Amino acid sequence: MAGGGGAPSKSDEPQPHPPKDQLPNISYCITSPPPWPEAILLGFQHFLVMLGTTVLIPTALVPQMGGGNEEKARVIETLLFVAGINTLVQTLFGSRLPAVIGGSYTYVPTTISIILAGRFSGEPDPIEKFKKIMRAVQGALIVASTLQIVLGFSGLWRNVARFLSPLSAVPLVSLVGFGLYELGFPGVAKCIEIGLPELILLVFFSQYVPHLLHSGKNISDRFAVLFTIVIVWIYAHLLTVGGAYNGAAPKTQASCRTDRAGLIDAAPWIRVPYPFQWGAPTFDAGEAFAMMMASFVALVESSGAFIAVYRFASATPLPPSILSRGIGWQGVGILLSGLFGTISGSSVSVENAGLLALTRVGSRRVVQISAGFMIFFSILGK
Question: Where does this protein have compositionally biased stretches of type Basic and acidic residues (predicted)?
Answer without folding.
Answer: 10-20
